């Protein structure tokens, strides 16, 4: 869990997926592990994994046991209601690249998309809001298609946003794991700006709060068995054209599975 941009001794070895997989979460999956255990997790036959915030200070989440370097991820999710409660589905690298989908519990018909490069949060102009009816009342399909040249978000198979890799905001291009979780942006202890963004303070007397994920499909566009950061990564991390400078691919290549992964995804 270290960051190679902040610690020269941080040399994570990221296990590559290098294939396509599907999980229904009717039971524990070998492809995912509990990342933060403050909260609880219940598996259901029809509704998949329920991720539960039982009380204040809970922020339960799961994380994939693999990384992808470009790929397509899709989840069928029912989010949590509740003022200030945030349900999240996102890709994240060790060095601060991130691709997000987030839902604010008090906004029943909206979803937010965002992306970050190398942990740069000096501006929040990358975020956009999209319409989705009743995301906490029913399941919807959400897709992130992270290509080397372009990043696309879909809701119920409809394209809602595209970002090119030459964006002025810089483009995420490090190997990323997949995370799903729930947290309280409206906790009274948070910064005022965070509470406002989350829609107001959370009433924890109304806990528990739950989100459900009943299917996740992942296709890796690259074939690497492992991804690691080069010894001079601190000097070479900046790249605006998504050429993955400073990332070493072990046992494979970047983006060489694009065609076969696209076929696998359509079958799954």
UniProtKB/TrEMBL annotation:
PANTHER family: GLYCOSIDASE CRH1-RELATED (PTHR10963:SF68), GLYCOSYL HYDROLASE-RELATED (PTHR10963). The keyword Hydrolase applies. It comes from the Eukaryota. GO terms for biological process: carbohydrate metabolic process; fungal-type cell wall organization. GO terms for cellular component: fungal-type cell wall. GO terms for molecular function: glycosyltransferase activity; hydrolase activity, hydrolyzing O-glycosyl compounds. It comes from Ascoidea rubescens DSM 1968. Transmembrane segments: none annotated. Pfam families: Glyco_hydro_16. This is Glycoside hydrolase family 16 protein. InterPro entries: Beta-glucanase-like, Beta_glucanase, ConA-like_dom_sf, Glycosyl_Hydrlase_16. The active site is at residues 98, 102. Keywords: Glycosidase, Hydrolase. Residues 1-224 form the GH16 domain.
